[in-house]
Amino acid sequence: MSGHLAVATLEIAAPPQRVWQVLLDPQSVRKYMFGSDVVTDWRPGSPILFRGEWEGRPYEDKGVIVEVNEPVLLQFTHYSPLSGAPDIPASYHTLTYQLEPIHTGTRVTLTQDNNDSEAAADHSAGMWRQVLDSVKAIVER
């Protein structure tokens, strides 16, 4: 992993299998990923697309599924044209969701690599904390 690492961690009062189901369910993804429609088959090597609208402008973020180890690890690359960065390998982040069973449920840690600076990593970590808060709300509903 290169660049500065953004990390968000949250405990969810549900078993890892339930959290896993929410992470991969397209209707749940729409709720926790800012209204994005996800398109993928969740298989390593397959493309993943997030399509939606942000501030009135349509977008399509993209990446590739790297690793799927149910219900412990989900990893994929991610590029957003909204970042303003060119669509080259150096502009992609790797997003890693790690699920760890704990006595109260599941600890979810979401990391994003390849942030340009500590400030960028902090900004991303804040955004991913919001995503995890939304996942928690869906799972614990």
Describe it.
- With 141 residues, the chain is of the alpha+beta class.
- Helices cover 28% and strands 43% of the residues.
- The chain is built from 3 helices and 7 strands.
- Strands 1-7-6-5-4-3-2 form a 7-stranded antiparallel sheet.
- The radius of gyration is 14 Å and the shape is globular.
- The relative contact order is 0.27.
- The mean pLDDT is 95.
Write the layout of secondary structure elements.
Layout: E1 4-12, H1 16-24, H2 26-32, E2 37-39, E3 47-54, E4 57-69, E5 73-78, E6 93-102, E7 105-115, H3 118-140
Antiparallel strand pairs: 1-7, 2-3, 3-4, 4-5, 5-6, 6-7
Helix pairs in contact: 1-3
How would a crystallographer describe the biggest sheet? Answer: 7 strands, antiparallel
In quaternary terms, these chains amount to single chain
- How far is the first residue's CA from the last residue's CA? 35 Å
The structure class reads alpha+beta
Strand content: 35-45%
Name the helicity range.
Answer: 25-40%
Number of helices: 3
Secondary structure: number of strands: 7
Give the uncertain stretches in residue-range form.
Answer: none
- What is the 3D form? globular
Radius of gyration using CA atoms only = 14 Å
